[in-house]
Amino acid sequence: MLKNYLLSAIRNISRNKLSSGISIFGLAIGISAAFLMFRYIQFELSFDNYHPRHERIYRLSSILSAGAKSEYLAPTAMSVAKQVQKLIDEIEVAARAVPMEAVVKLGSYQVNSKHKFYQADPEIFDILEVEWLAQENNNPLKKPNTVILTQSLADKFFEDVWYDDMLGRPLMLNRKIYSVGGVIKDIPQNSDLRFEALVSLNDSQYEWLDFQAYTYILLKKNTALSDLQLSLQNFDQHWFTPVLQEEWGTEESYVYHKAIAIADLHFTNDLIGDTEEKGNMSLIVVLSIIAIFLVTIAAINFINLFIAQSIKRNVEVGIRKVIGARKSQLVFQYLSESLLFTLISTVIAILLIQAVEPFWYASTNISLNINSLLYENIFLYLVMTLLLIGIFAGSYAAFFLASSDPVKALKNHFSNSSPKSFHKVLQLIQFSIATGMVLCTLILYQQLDFMLNKQLGYDEERLMVLSIPEVPEKSEVMSSFKQYLLDKNYAESVTLGAKPGNLYLKGTVIQEMDGNNIEVTVNAIYADADYLEVLGISLVEGNNFYRDACDCEHQYIINEALSKRLQWDRAVGESLSFDGEGEIIGVVKDFHYQSLHYAIEPLIIILNPEGGTHALVKLQGDKVGEIESAWQTFLPDIPISYSFLEQELAAQYRTEKHMIDLFIFFSILTIVISCMGLFGMSAMNAQLRTKAMGIHKVMGARRLQIFYLLSKDTLTNVGFAIVISLPLAGMIMFRWLSLFEYHVTFDWMQLFIAGSIVFLLAMFTSCYHSLHITQTNPVLSLKDE
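User: That's the sequence. What structure does it adopt?
Assistant: Structure tokens below.
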């Protein structure tokens, strides 16, 4: 009997190629796209969960407060790891990983390596999980001047050499010979510390208060996080802060340490000097919603078309019931057909996923190979979803048809009593989602275009940004480098300071006003005397920094926002205490030193070239190669690290760019799937009403009237979907725009455009079959069975 049901299903597919193909391929496309998004979400949420003891692994961060300044740092002082392991009972193991700039020399050639080298304590392997391919002993990092290579870097450096034969090989790093002590498998992509090589940590290279170490700790079993935080507070108050105050000679300096679970690091975005690019939870939420929408739309298509296709077989149902078919047999037949459809969709979905795997991996580094695919829980969930869709579609059609009156079915009167309201509800949901996504895409695109093109109050063009390393006599080296670029005409101008969007200092300014203290939270940056000129920042009051100022003087330039908050009629000449007591010598016009997510906040620019984190170079033509050569002249052991300010500013909106790209792609996909379903439903509706339309034409109905009769129900339903969806989507996007201090204006034209796009697409989709009937000879229509 099952064989007969399958044969019947195959014949049904062959007789209804268009609607069957649309329902099967529409479901496969929706499921494939949803799988890709859920796979990405699963990857983002899995960071560092692969460590067997990840529930007990934490990383310490530092909150450094010195007078009015505060810094939120990802690294800790070099001394913290050993001291917390000694003084805090809850900690089983502590280890450090310190970023290392490395120039690698192999044989006769030298590589200015941009690979991720870290110096590390040998205890790092007691905390983080690695898989060894070769090693000299149980923990090679215990031996000084040892380097551990990852598999890909070992293959690059030594090519066809066996991993065991690499052990003991010399490798020159920064003009010092190291020995290869082991090779490990590459660190997984879902790791917050994706190093490519680990080097034995030499404490003598660092001061104990250098804040350069990423400190990882492993808690003892059954230790509560609250107990650890309490112990860290005691450690900070009674040991670290007193020693720090004594070292720095000030009682205004404090350090607080915070433990962050290793699995939470990927979504911790507020720390200075963190390791990898961080994730964004807003993007995860958006992707989840889109994935659910796609599955919903694909399921609605499938259910609508399957039920409509089943209703066309009402005469067959009547005959089967007359000759004695039981209700359970009819139910089983339709369920088997529906499940066969979903099985075919599943196979096509797997083929589609594998087809896009090269493009997917190139953009995300997330594997989709067939072996891992079959073991992914998310794939199991989607298969279960497919089965539920198939069971629901088959059950609804089967129970509805099996409950029908066989006499009416034999007379072919069944179509007039078909569940139109159910179809309309599903179609209403489908086009409501499509309309909402189109509106969201329009507003997202307008907002991103606004942010990328808004005038920021300074000149970002032709600005090359170089990271300044911490080296001995940094100020003298960078001053000489700056002068060299100017003398050689490699640069039009150069300044040492902070790049816009890269704030390292926060603090509080207290100003007495009418007997009351006004407390203002401020941001601060260090810069040299050329900072305003290079960036083209305008002064509205006072002067630029004095180049011949003595070291004892503190010169401050503030922005208009701070001047207004402190209620000064004229700020120039006023005293201010932030990085020491100093004088305000100028006020600059407000400029967007942060992204447009934030309002322009009070800012202090401090004359301190030594504290500059970047060199901003205004290029004189295409001189990038010459600047790279000059860097090697002054800093031969440190690879150059540079970018361009325009790219850096655009990167501030990477999340919005990702969201827009996703919305555009999946909005198109949503519309395509929705229109596929509408096309199939229109075809079936036109087929069912061919004879009726032939009668109308014989009675004198014009083509426009025939088109109206066939399309009015569908277009009315789409119109209702648009009316329902636009206000709801509009409110959501209005709330989203309110997250930006500066955003596009939300108006009714955006609603009109989104609604018009969806309605016109729906109209053109449903028109095809209606126009075909209007052009058909009514004699042929009346012969239709």
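The chain has a mean pLDDT of 78.
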